Amino acid sequence: MIKIYLFILSLCLGNQVCAQQNGFKIPDTLRNKNYDYLFERAEDLEKDSVKQSLYLRTFLLKATAEKNSEEIVNGYKNYVHYSPENLKLVYADSMIYAAKKSGDNALIGSAYLSKGIVYYAQKKHNYALNNYLIANNFISKTNDTYLIYKVKYNIANIKYYLRFYDEALSLFQECITYFKDENARAYLNSLHLIGLCYNKIGNYGLCSETNEKGLAEGKRLANNEMESYFIHSEGINQYFKNNYATAIKKITYSLPAIKENEDFANESVGYFYIGKSYWALKKPKMALPYFRKVDVIFDAKGYIRPDLLENYELIIRYYKSEDNLKAQLHYIGKLLKADSILDHKYQYLSSRIHKEYDTKEILSEKKNIENQLDKRKHNDFIFITVIIFLFFSILLLAYRHIRNKSMYRQKFEELMKKSQVLKVQVKNINKGALDINEDTVASVLKQLEKFEKDKKFLEKDLTLAKLTVAFDSNTKYLSQIIYHYREKKFTEYINDLKIDYLISILKIDKRIRNYTNKALAEEAGFSSTQRFANAFLTKTGMPTSYFIEELKKSYPTL
């Protein structure tokens, strides 16, 4: 009966979303914006739900109008991420419905995986696992490596929760190998969980090493989202090393950020180990308030895991020492309730993960070996075919390489002949009047010259709107003047200034030539490494790596 009610509620809310979209028209200012722009604006406006809603709705309506299945799914995924807790699963169901209409296994698998992640965040592990297994059925039929490892990561989380630490550790180690160069946050998350696994199997030294590595890698990647989690993990690890004061200090330091993330699970675990540290220091009265906080979270969220059962055992021991029978009876009831929940949940999860995931992995490996044996029957034919294919592929690659090298070299020489790379030319001043007051034009041009001279273009996330405010102008006039006198649209104008600046310092500063693309992007104020690489290639006609290598070879003393 409850399931039927929830299904009807989902349909009603889903129809309400569609009705809202149908009655909504994309504003003219957003009509030609791409999906990346709309997503980034929604992300920037996370603290302003009213304005954010405009970009979320525009994204989804644009995708629906263009019948773009992938972006429709992404549109609902955006709603899943940014909507209130009570609506996340409704949008998740809409996302799955849209994915199923596409018939694309990767989209369907990704949608189920996202719904499972919502359940996991709510610590409803049974429902999370159900969706992970469905996701795995679809994703295993694709060649989408990222999604395959994303499923692997989330299954590893369930294994960690089930206390299959060695199995979880093996999966997380596979994940860091893949995610290291693919996704910084997923890489750091996997490192964090590897540290937790080491702690659980009693290897406290490797746990500390992993936490230190996580903090160092976070700094290297300029990503501090996991900093508090590595400190939290090390605080718990210090408890097991009997360094109780250090444990209290580190966990206490980490908790504000964890609470801000609304991560009640790690908050609860943190309180428990602070309480245990005070208990170990023979300060039970200081421990008790932290044990009670664990109980409050259990009441509010239903969150419990095996090691937290000791929370109730210690509370009961405390009240026994105080001869408080009423309190003892109350917390004995809590302990029995928590134990019952865990017993049911673990039995269900353990049987399903072994039956439907581990067995499938073994069968998949068996099939893979059988396929390899079958292929050996045609080995001679395949070998000759592959050799011929490789021969012509190498010829084609060699031709392209020589052609590209020649083209890059020509562009490099042209670039180096310029006496002043960082010089903005004012073009076609007299090529026709703008329908703008001459004084206004003169004022904006003067500000542009100062803007270029002072290298204000190096500011990150510089937009036409921001520059308009700085110039006390308006976006229409500023974009027209830039286009008229610089013959470039605003984005190209800013990107070219950044690239010209980088080229000028690369020519004179040998130290900068050793920077990574990420560091060069930061130096020039690009918001991402990929945007920098694209802008450099567009401006110069060659990749950054080629330009720098040629600079080192041809002009070592510059």
Short description:
Residues 1-19 form the signal peptide. The chain is mainly α and 558 residues long. It has helices spanning 2-22, 35-44, 49-65, 69-82, 85-102, 105-121, 125-139, 145-161, 165-179, 184-200, 204-220, 227-240, 244-260, 264-280, 284-301, 309-321, 325-376, 379-417, 438-453, 464-471, 475-486, 490-508, 517-524, 529-540, 544-554.
The helix content, as a percent range, equals over 70%
H/E topology pattern: HHHHHHHHHHHHHHHHHHHHHHHHH
Structural class determined from secondary elements: mainly alpha
Strand content: under 5%
Say how many strands there are: 0
Residue ranges: pLDDT <50 for 5 or more in a row? 1-20, 419-431
Shape: elongated
Under CATH at level 1, the class of the domain at 1-143 stands as: Mainly Alpha
Mean pLDDT, to the nearest integer, reads 79
CATH topology of the domain at 1-143: Serine Threonine Protein Phosphatase 5, Tetratricopeptide repeat
Can you summarize the main beta sheet? Answer: none
Name given to the CATH architecture of the domain at 1-143: Alpha Horseshoe
C-alpha termini separation? 78 Å
Radius of gyration: 29 Å
Q: Work out the helix count.
A: 25
